[in-house]
């Protein structure tokens, strides 16, 4: 989604801003723009398309050298992605520049009022209303900080905001409500960004702004208050990843790199937590709420997209192993249906980014209703992590590929750890605990083995690259794997794919099956293996083209399937961690075979910070 980067200091700002914008490209965007201040004036350049197109425009139309400036990559909500609608937006006098992530919900009311007062709008965006509103308030002699503060009091919606004024050209005023914003603290220079990736090359010292805070940032200092002018003391924190983790390291795409990182990221999710010899788990972030978890009346897992799929697998683990009734909800549905939630419920928010607007709103809803609200989050210091009462970081490291891969398997690993921790606290024997702990401990090596099938999967993708529909089927804990496989294929190769519980096929989707329909079965040798095999037979009888994800010792399946991708055996509920990996590779190689943009698929954003 939209990206923000700003620099104020001693160095020429434009190269730093453009580099930052490139590091934010993974978030998904459709136009970009910059503004710099020089000699009491603001200078802008904005362009539809990629940052490279903005750079080309800057070659033709050079901006003056400056040590303060800001850049934005826009993912269109209000107004099509063209040069005019790109940020930064200015006011009538051209003395104010605004970049904004989020949505101003009451922009139409504010715009109408400002137009009556004589303001002339150039763009179709909601953001432009902020520049004119700030301009209007500054007319009364207010300084920039006060004007931004007062303007935001009139605004409904969400924002991560950076404002510059040619009248106070040595500073930014920034504010946050519902959209992420961090300050990067340097030596004689400071930065502002929506995402640490934009500033990590320059500083690892950051300040996370909280909702409702406004900050004034100059080269040597920053001050933070609430909208009501109450001073806030901010702590400087250190980012726990480095530049190498957000680079491709020799892989053609971030997605491929991240798929191959999984043996390591799964290990990282367990490191220092899984106690193999004691058959137990220690999760520091949950110790203070362990009793709540163990005695929960029910657990509600909430997320969106891939994180929701992880939650569905978690439901099987928590109900079957830890014996706690568990429900899984789409965050976007939960937040608006006035759900019955009590203080005996534990709500687990699943989120890679920790910034998804719907998941954050669901968190607030559950908190307001008295539930114990816990986060299972990847991005350290993100809003969901900070607003939760406790939780577990999945420690997958920065995930840059828009299609989530390593975060998913790390989420599943953490859900398995939480499950084992609860199960042991509820009386699971040490012997049984050890069996599960050993299975978990063996997963990284087994994932490595699955990755060894990459060449076979690439050949498979070549075989099926002309197919325009796919069906993914699985049962039990592998039904969410089927959903995830279908989602991955849709996202990056734009092929229509449906995930279904295998047994549901005969209630409708079976009508789709003919000799042209590829059907991917996730069919490990678990308790319901024979049942899924019957579904495989049903597809075969109708001449569907069967691709099976099956265990190494399964010789039955090769008689029925046209292609078999092998995965090692593991304990049933941990199977999804292995079974999803070939599906990630299949979607990757299908996208390569069809020539789509793997890391920046059309229309998608890495972190969906608007409703
Ligand atoms: C799919 C994908 C999305 C996200 C969803 C939630 O590959 O990445 O479906 O899973 O937008 O995002 P987070 O986990 O950041 O809350």
Features:
611 residues, alpha/beta, Glutamine Phosphoribosylpyrophosphate, subunit 1, domain 1, Rossmann fold, eight-stranded antiparallel β-sheet, 18 helices, 27 strands, globular, binds fructose -6-phosphate
Please describe what this structure looks like.
The protein has 18 helices and 27 strands. It is of the alpha/beta class. The protein has 3 domains: 3-239, Glutamine Phosphoribosylpyrophosphate, subunit 1, domain 1; 250-450, 3-Layer(aba) Sandwich (Rossmann fold), CATH 3.40.50; 452-598, Glucose-6-phosphate isomerase like protein, domain 1 (Rossmann fold). The strands form 5 sheets. Strands 3-2-4-1-10-9-11-15 form an 8-stranded antiparallel β-sheet, covered by helices on one side. The N and C termini lie close together (12 Å). The model has no long low-confidence stretch (mean pLDDT 95). The protein binds fructose -6-phosphate (F6R). Fructose -6-phosphate (F6R) is lined by residues 304-307, 351-353, 356, 359, 403-404, 487, 491, 607-608.
Say how many strands there are. 27
CATH class call of the largest domain: Alpha Beta
Shape: globular
Query: Kindly, what is the distance between the CA atoms of the first and last residues, rounded to a whole number of angstroms?
Result: 12 Å
CATH topology of the largest domain: Glutamine Phosphoribosylpyrophosphate, subunit 1, domain 1
Order of the strands making up the biggest sheet: 3-2-4-1-10-9-11-15
